Amino acid sequence: MTEMSYEAPNTLVAAVALLAGADGGGKILAGGTDVLVQLHAEMIDPDVLVDIKNIPEVRAMSENGGAWQVGAAVPGMQIIDDADFADAWPGVCEGVALIGSVQVKGRASIGGNLCNGSPAADSVPALIAAGAVAMIIGPGGSREDAVENIITGPGKTSIGNGEFIVSFGFPKRPAHSGDCYLRLTPRTEMDIAVVGVGINITLDDAGTCIAARVAVCAVAPRPLLVADAADALIGTTVDAGAVENMIAAVRAACDPISDKRGTKEYRIKTAGVIARRALEKALERAKAN
Ligand SMILES: Cc1cc2nc3c(=O)[nH]c(=O)nc-3n(C[C@H](O)[C@H](O)[C@H](O)COP(=O)(O)OP(=O)(O)OC[C@H]3O[C@@H](n4cnc5c(N)ncnc54)[C@H](O)[C@@H]3O)c2cc1C
């Protein structure tokens, strides 16, 4: 193991410079609930640990005309305790609320949940369903990318060398919109998902679905946006036939492993069950808004 240095810069520019100076040997530290476990288990061996929690932009949470900007290192508890954000995005808060215990969420961030690259990361399907966009900074300047493009495989992301996520943008919600995240686990908490589904839906005044996004986790090597599942709902009144088509599309997108939490067949079957329940909740919220 090489000697590791710890840095806690106060600005984005200083953090980018530290990562550039580390020439690929730098590792971002946000809440540390994954990083510290991995360091302890000697799964990672960075030269420089760059703690971003002193940088104001990654700790800020703000609303502007209905659109939200949430810093990548804002702790989960701060997100779910923000009544206005919870009112706008209850499904995102459901995803965040499932990350570990209250103590874990006192540190854990959505930037860390995403960039750890777990196929079962609980906040990620909800972020994808919300249409959240990651604001990324690095040696080449700033760029934006949709959350569904960030995780590329187990433990792997599209975040380049020296880059990190500053914040996430959430669009203003149209009227009659609702979202929901549900997961199935063998235990009630402190375990990862066997399957997780995030759904975000918008209806018109007559109750026809005019927009939908459906995302799944723990049923493929990475969390997935399932466009066919959304297409099954859009243009319908979310009648029984549309729901069955949505479920069939979710199941068709699943490519899970079998492990101690469930077989491949079990995950595919339950993905449809969880998708139906998440849709019912999202629909109930959309009708109430
Ligand atoms: C007891 C326990 C229970 C848990 N339960 C769950 C659970 O139920 N569901 C679940 O999804 N997770 C769970 N986790 C995993 C973990 O808590 C989450 O993944 C958490 O959201 C990680 O956030 P963090 O801020 O602690 O990330 P960190 O550990 O700081 O970082 C995680 C990874 O992301 C990178 N990173 C962090 N921030 C950024 C950024 N802004 N830009 C680029 N890269 C970045 C880091 O370099 C690292 O590779 C659990 C962990 C523990 C210890």
Task: Give an account of the 3D structure.
It contains twelve helices and 14 strands. The chain has 289 residues and is of the alpha+beta class. Helix 11 packs across helix 12. Flavin-adenine dinucleotide is lined by residues 27-35, 37, 72-73, 98-100, 104, 107-109, 111-113, 115-116, 121-122, 159, 164-165, 190, 192.
Uncertain spans: none
Rg estimate, integer Å: 19 Å
Distinct small molecules: flavin-adenine dinucleotide
Find the structural class using helix and strand composition.
alpha+beta
Topology (elements, then pairings):
Blueprint: E1 5-7, H1 12-22, E2 26-29, H2 35-40, E3 48-51, H3 56-59, E4 61-64, E5 67-71, H4 76-81, H5 83-88, H6 90-97, H7 102-105, H8 110-115, H9 123-130, E6 133-138, E7 141-146, E8 151-153, E9 156-157, E10 164-170, E11 177-184, E12 195-203, E13 209-217, E14 224-225, H10 227-233, H11 240-253, H12 264-288
Parallel strand pairs: 1-3, 2-3
Antiparallel strand pairs: 4-5, 5-10, 6-7, 6-10, 8-9, 11-12, 12-13, 13-14
Helix pairs in contact: 6-9, 10-11, 11-12
